[in-house]
Design goal:
mainly alpha
């Protein structure tokens, strides 16, 4: 997600929804898709999620990864 601010904002919004438990299944699917497209989660993690294997564990991991990605993005903008 290099520089596309609308994707970053969408990822942030979805991260908050998933974290708070307010995300729909479509929200979770989009969150995972964005993380996968960004290279933040592996192909195996994404496929396991799509095939409903270890979904809760994968989403918990994705929340941590997504949070780290968003923090890194924010810091890079502050330091510019």
């Amino acid at each position: 997600m290099e520089g596309n601010s609308s994707d970053i904002l969408k990822l942030f919004d979805l991260n908050q929804k998933v974290k708070s438990g307010l995300a729909t299944q479509a929200d979770k699917d989009e969150y995972m898709r964005l993380l996968y497209q960004n290279g933040s989660i592996t192909n195996k993690q994404y496929n396991d999620y799509l095939q409903d294997r270890n979904t809760n564990d994968i989403i918990e991991t994705a929340l941590v990864i997504g949070g780290i990605f968003l923090l890194g993005y924010a810091l890079s903008k502050i330091l510019k």
